[in-house]
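testing teh design pipeline on a random one, pls ignore if ur not involved
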């Protein structure tokens, strides 16, 4: 995913972000966030060809590994709905340092938005209920 992000940034003429900027206080719009798809050939760690949907936000990348029969449009929509909620659960360790997700928050989000690894068609009312629950 990092290679795909760098390739997209270099081809668009945008400089790459060397370190994680401070998270803004307001929600982030992901409409223009770089995103894409690429395929991984059969082998380690996946026995068959898989497609990876990715989304880059700030200096982070989020990815979903999709089986061949999965809906890739739904994967992108799921990433765009999951990413801001995961960003809200980030704990920054310091300037230029790594970040950590609060595991309990990430587990709840993944369990609600991707139950048993299955992508769901998510409506706004359901997302608001998840946000209240968090």
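output:
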């Amino acid at each position: 995913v990092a290679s795909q992000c760098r390739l997209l940034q270099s081809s668009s003429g945008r400089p790459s972000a060397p370190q994680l900027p401070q998270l803004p206080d307001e929600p982030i719009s992901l409409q223009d966030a770089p995103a894409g798809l690429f395929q991984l050939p059969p082998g380690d760690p996946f026995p068959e060809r898989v497609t990876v949907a990715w989304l880059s936000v700030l200096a982070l990348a989020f990815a979903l590994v999709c089986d061949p029969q999965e809906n890739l449009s739904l994967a992108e929509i799921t990433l765009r709905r999951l990413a801001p909620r995961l960003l809200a659960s980030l704990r920054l360790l310091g300037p230029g340092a790594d970040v950590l997700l609060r595991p309990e928050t990430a587990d709840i989000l993944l369990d609600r938005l991707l139950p048993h690894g299955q992508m769901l068609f998510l409506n706004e009312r359901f997302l608001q209920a998840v946000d209240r629950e968090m």
